[in-house]
Amino acid sequence: MKKLEEYVKSIPDFPEKGIIFRDVTSVLQDAEGLHLAIDTMEDMIKDLEYDVVAGPESRGFIFGTPIAYNNRKPFVLIRKQGKLPRETVSISYDLEYGQSVIEMHKDSIKPGQRVLIVDDLIATGGTTEAMIKLIESLGGQVVGIVVLMELAGLCGRERIKGYRLESAICYPGK
């Protein structure tokens, strides 16, 4: 049986010279790779007590929804600005080259609910930090974060100190 890392294709010099792009689509395109990714992520948080799973657009949806489904938990969408139809709360945050805004429905998290964040990747931690702030603004408590891949060289873990972060694959470089 292949290791999870073997399903990830690494593309050198994309999107620019010196960067190694870790392609999650190669995991999704292989039935065994997808099963292994979901099973591995679930195994990493099997001892965690949570009420709700939240994930960001779009790959957080892909990995978060099956985890929520398998554990009979609701799934909360975190989307780019302007994509949700009801009343929302939003947060602006810095990206490497600019800013972005994410939002959630105002009624998606109830005060006191324990929330698990699921995503495909943590790099610098900016998006993860914004999600935490957004969930906590609604009274939710982030009890854990699980990602498929961590780019440890970009120090995202440092940005979210104090929160449990599990990564199925950890790449040491950028």
UniProtKB/TrEMBL annotation:
InterPro entries named in the record: Ade_phspho_trans, PRTase-like, PRTase_dom, UPRTase/APRTase
Compartments it resides in: Cytoplasm
Subunit record text: Homodimer.
Biological or metabolic pathway of the protein: Purine metabolism; AMP biosynthesis via salvage pathway; AMP from adenine: step 1/1
Designated gene of the protein: apt
First-tier enzyme category under EC: transferase
One MF annotation (Gene Ontology) recorded for this entry: AMP binding
CDD domains per UniProt: PRTases_typeI
Domain spans labelled Phosphoribosyltransferase: 36-161
Keywords noted in UniProt: Cytoplasm, Glycosyltransferase, Purine salvage, Transferase
EC number: 2.4.2.7
UniProt entry tagged with the keyword Cytoplasm: yes
GO biological process: adenine salvage; AMP salvage; purine ribonucleoside salvage
Family: Belongs to the purine/pyrimidine phosphoribosyltransferase family.
Gene source species: Candidatus Acetatifactor stercoripullorum
This protein's name: Adenine phosphoribosyltransferase
